[in-house]
Amino acid sequence: MSVSARSPSRIRPAPVRHPVAAPVSEEAALRLTLLSWYDRHRRVLPWRVLPGATADPYRVWLSEIMLQQTTVKAVAPYFMRFLERWPDVTRLAAAPLDDVLKAWAGLGYYARARNLHACAKAVVERHGGVFPSDEAALRALPGVGAYTAAAVAAIAFEQATLAIDGNVERVLTRLYAIEEPLPAAKPLIRARAQTLAADAGHAARHGDFVQAMMDLGATICTPRNPACVICPWSEPCAARRRGDPEIFPRKQPKVEGALRRGIAFVVLREDGAVLLRQRPMKGLLGGMTEVPTTVWTKDFEARQAGADAPRLDGVRLSWRTLPGVVRHVFTHFPLELNVRRARAPQAAKAPEGMRFVPLARVHAEALPSLMRKVISHAIPEIDKIVREE
After folding, report:
1. Is the pTM of this model over 0.85?
2. Of 247, 282, 305, at which residue does a domain stop?
């Protein structure tokens, strides 16, 4: 029988070859899982755009600077006030530094405000008012460190990088059970982060992934009592499997700075004005407004304070030491200030480099939290005066 005469039923069809899906790496699977969780549970924040929208580099940068060592709840109203007053980087760069410091007052870590203003000016002068998209170029701007540069590059420009802050360090040290304590563990954490950022596949969503990591650390993988039961990475998390996620990240014992002391001098004029001055631009609380004080030292002796007390021409001030102390904790040391108060006649003139400010306008000054405590301690009625104004 010829081949052509064979029965069709005896002819075997060629096997159908289905395309084989490429294996998904562990890192890619982690990304997909977290992004799926983020799509359902992302936080609504004033600086975060809606899904599918393009992020504004100015808003991303402004929020990241404000959020350094500060909570989302504290930052939100400041962010909105800044945007209302300076809606873009060009107008912020043109603003007087003193206005920026006044608007920042109360957020703390005041070098950030000075750097914020310097950075805005640099973006205008070096880049024509347009933020650079390159991470290295962003790091060259004043006050922009590795974390902020990576956050802006990823969120605003979809660059393949992962911003590493305390939240992300905590998530990654738990995910991989990194035993080495901080800060020695930082290179290993960075290597793990780079692997996660690089293995993105065709649907990178670098900005969303960075924000998903932030949300995971802020809402689920918290320092205490992490919600492992509802965590999208519960299954692959090594620390969860061990049963001890709260011990990560491991840290070296913190060495607290020695207590410093000093005296603050509050001069209240008869017309209801208080004597203020500006701190030097460089150093702690640089450029902020304060009442005159002594230096703050570990071995402070009150009897040496007389030389630092302000003097008014033709006026003899009678100082009264108020009961109690004003306590404040800076990053590197705690501080205790005694407060001395004196009253001056209405005609008294401020010494060179100082000025009298009406109490009703004190709230508009660039006073750090410490100085607001001092003034409230010396003038308990200040809050009522400001409210009435």
Report:
1. no
2. 247
